[in-house]
Amino acid sequence: MSLLSIQNVIKTYGDKRAVNNISLEVPEGTIFGLLGPNGAGKTTLIRMITNILYQDSGQIVLRDVSASDRPAHIGYMPEERGLYKKMKVGEQLLYLARLKRMPADKAKQQIDKWFSKFEISDWWDKKVDELSKGMQQKVQFIATVIHEPKLIILDEPFSGLDPINTNLIKDQIYELKQEGATILFSTHRMEQVEEVCEQIALINQGEVILSGEVAGLKQRFKSNQYRCTFRLPLALEINDWQAAAPFNVISTAADRGSIVLQLHQGQQADVALNYLLRQQLPINGFEEILPTLNEIFIAQVNGATEAKRADLSSTDLLSSPSPDETNEHA
Amino acid sequence: MHKIWLVFKREYLTRVRKKSFIILTLLVPLSILFLYTLPVLVIMLSKGGEEMRIAVVDQNEKIIIPGNNSMVFVKADQTLEELKSDYTSAGFDGVLSIGKLQKDRIPKVDYYSDKLLGVSNKAYIESRLKKQITKYKIEELGWKPDDFKKVKGLSVNIKERSSEAGDEDEDIASTATATGVGFAMGMLMYFVIFIYGSMVMRSVMEEKTNRIVEVILSSVRPFQLMMGKIMGVGAVGVTQFAIWAFVFLGINIFASLFLAGMVDPGSTGMAMEASSADSQEIMEMVESMTEQISQLPLGMITLAFFFYFITGYFVYAALFAGLASAVNDESDAQILTIPVGIPVLLSLFILIGMMENPNTSLAFWASICPLSAPIIMPARMAFGVPLWELLLSMVLMILGVVFFVWLAARIYRVGILMYGKKVTFREIAKWMLRS
Fold first, then answer.
1. What is the predicted ipTM?
2. How many CB pairs under 8 A join A and B?
3. How many CA atoms lie within 13 A of B20 on its CB side?
4. pLDDT of residue B167
5. Which of A56-65, B46-55, B87-96, B321-330 has the lowest mean pLDDT?
6. What mean pLDDT do residues B175-189 have?
7. Parallel, antiparallel, or unpaired for β A207-213 and A57-62?
8. Among B148, B239, B206, which residue's Cα sits nearest to residue B333?
9. Average model confidence (pLDDT) for chain A?
10. Of A147, A196, B110, B356, which has the fewest Cβ atoms less than 10 A away?
11. Hey, is A73 helix, strand or coil?
């Protein structure tokens, strides 16, 4: 059953259509990935969900909640985030919880709960600018979830986090999900999503170009390729394989320790493995190669844009993440 | 409303609890208190020295100078020449010689010593001598002392009466007093607008550059955030003014009860060394000023001042907030706030011009336009304003608050989420029109 339902939403800035007729269903209790390159319209869509902006047309419905009450049931951590630097951590969290209509005594209990969870019980009287960046991010996360929202929206939640804090936040996301929260996770970093999300929607240029369960999508877009690894370097060259084999060998690894093969039309993996075994090769492993979301996305964007004969520049961000981003999540 | 209240509370409390607020609020009255008491203290401290004994050689044998707590005057038995050569062994610090009183001439007065008298001692002696000599001169002319007082107290005042006031006997205040009061109120309003308006501006910019604004906006509407902020900072201003008013009241009571009792008014320096006739003149001036101020429609002016204080603050704070939302860094801030500064400065120029002639049509229009009325109208009221003009101005002022808050909110909700790019006035105009 979907908690958040978005139907035919359109938002235009001047003459630029940032969100073009997007429809989405976010099921309750899932971690849902909203993916797309920078400028795809993710943040605009999120701002409409959180009532920061209003859509030009279309509907956004959070189940059992009226549109004007929506903000109280949503916890939002924007990509561009911050805190009042001169305010004490405790007062700040209390203020933010009160703005979400949580009564003061309940908010205090929540703050205590999260402080003990993150082992930061002595932070109440600390000012935010006395904290390190990593510590501030913990406070930011608590601020997002303190009012026990039904829907938690995290826009690029791991950007700027060190590996330890990344794992800490990841664990909290899983835990919140266990407790029944629904999480909408927006990012342009596909590899993060494969790990965390069950369902995704791919957005490009203001439109949903693909959506569904991660596992299902991978099955749908797989190309029947398998990798076979060997104990000893293989003497066979690509051309040495018999035409009778139920597959083509596409590539051989540089150390000759593995090959990638493509099944012939209508062939099954067990037939291929059987054939390989009959060749008495020193087989170590045999696995299916599934496409990464990145590959699926690029294929989809290319397909869509080829049809439109449009500019491809927006996909560059996906195929080659900048060096500092790679380090952050190493 | 609840959210505006939460924002208001945060804006108010974080400011009022700040060390800089407490220091500034206390520092202003303390520094004024310090300037107020410094001369008195200096005089009191400088009086700590030994009493001076001054020998008086009076050729008329009748002038008596009363001593004070820094000087004693002793009628000398020796001749002037004897004393001049050796006054120290006779136990004196100096010799005062007073020449013969003659018709149509002021007697010659000399003081001989190797030490100077000091400014305040000299003024004291001069004023006492003047008093005595005046007395003899009056006798010489054959006047009675009372006649002289009558002539001296003579003054001519033009009483200005409002022709529009229904009551024939109702006076309007003198031009000078009205000018003073009006100008003071206009200036005060000018400072209020700039000090607290720019406080609102900094607060908006802080939230934007801190990037907390998007978190906040996922809980409150931009309008609620802006209003809470404007009201919170406004309350800080009211608090500060209230504290100052109380402290000044306290200082005045303290000064009139405590200091006056402690210091002998006859010896507190040159200004107070004026002859009794002079001080009587000053007293009369003060009295007539107080009387004239009390002739101003004070209750009305106070109420109106309060009204314009609140509405004027709202108009300008809203404009500051709206423009600050478009700011990305400090250098933008200066350019973007120019349009807010222009009407304030213009109003100030009109105010200065109005001091010369309060009844121009420019003054009229400026006093009903919401951008200049807060500065101009209270000042004009000191000169007397027909009721309909006041009411018109107030109605327009309320409409002005609604309009400018609405306008600022439209700029604010777009500007506050606009990062990175330099915003032009044209774009801001577009935001206003966009639904």
1. 0.78
2. 59
3. 3
4. 45
5. B46-55
6. 77
7. unpaired
8. B206
9. 85
10. B356
11. helix
Torsion angle of C-alpha atoms A35, A321, A174, A90, degrees rounded to 10: -100
* Half-sphere exposure of residue A209: CA atoms within 13 angstroms, side-chain side: 22
Distance CA A286, CA A229 (A): 6
Average confidence (pLDDT) over B312-325: 91
Tell me the DSSP string of B325-346: TT-SSHHHHHHHTHHHHHHHHH
Average confidence (pLDDT) over A260-287: 88
Q: Which residues from B are below 8 Å from A82, CB to CB?
A: 210-213, 215
Which CA distances in Å does A44 have to A7, A34, A197, A203, B282?
15, 12, 21, 12, 72
Q: Look-up: residue for tokens 């700011």? A: B327
3-class DSSP state of B402: helix
- Residues of chain B in Cβ contact (below 8 Å) with chain A: 2-3, 6-7, 10, 14, 207, 210-221, 417, 419
Which residue matches tokens 């359109």?
A10
Residue for token pair 């050569």: B85
Per-residue CA distances from B35 to A2, A202, B21, B26, B30 (Å): 72, 71, 21, 14, 9
Tell me the per-residue pLDDT of B226-281, one tens digit each, with 9 for 90 and over: 999 999 999 998 898 888 888 877 777 776 676 555 544 444 444 444 444 455 56
Give the whole-angstrom CA distance, residue A168 versus residue B349.
62
Which residues on neighbouring strands pair with residue A32, listed in sequence order? Answer: A184, A199
The Cα B229–Cα A112 span in angstroms is 29
Closest by CA to B190, choosing from B7, B4, B350, is B350
Share of chain A above pLDDT 90, in %: 33
Q: Looking at CA atoms only, how far is residue B18 from chain A in angstroms?
A: 10
Residue A135 has pLDDT above 80, yes or no: yes
Residue B182 C-alpha from the chain's centroid:
12
Three-state DSSP class for A18? strand
Report d(CA B58, CA A258) in Å as an integer.
130
User: Is B403:B426 a contact under the CB 8 Å cutoff?
Assistant: no
Q: Judge: A71–B218 Cβ closer than 8 Å, yes or no.
A: yes
CA distance B199 to chain A (A): 16
- pLDDT tens, residue by residue, A84-131: 988 999 999 999 999 999 999 999 999 999 999 888 888 889 998 898
Q: What angle do CA B29, B30, B33 make, to 5 degrees?
A: 85
Chain B interface test: which of A13, A50, A84, A184 (most B C-beta within 10 Å) = A84
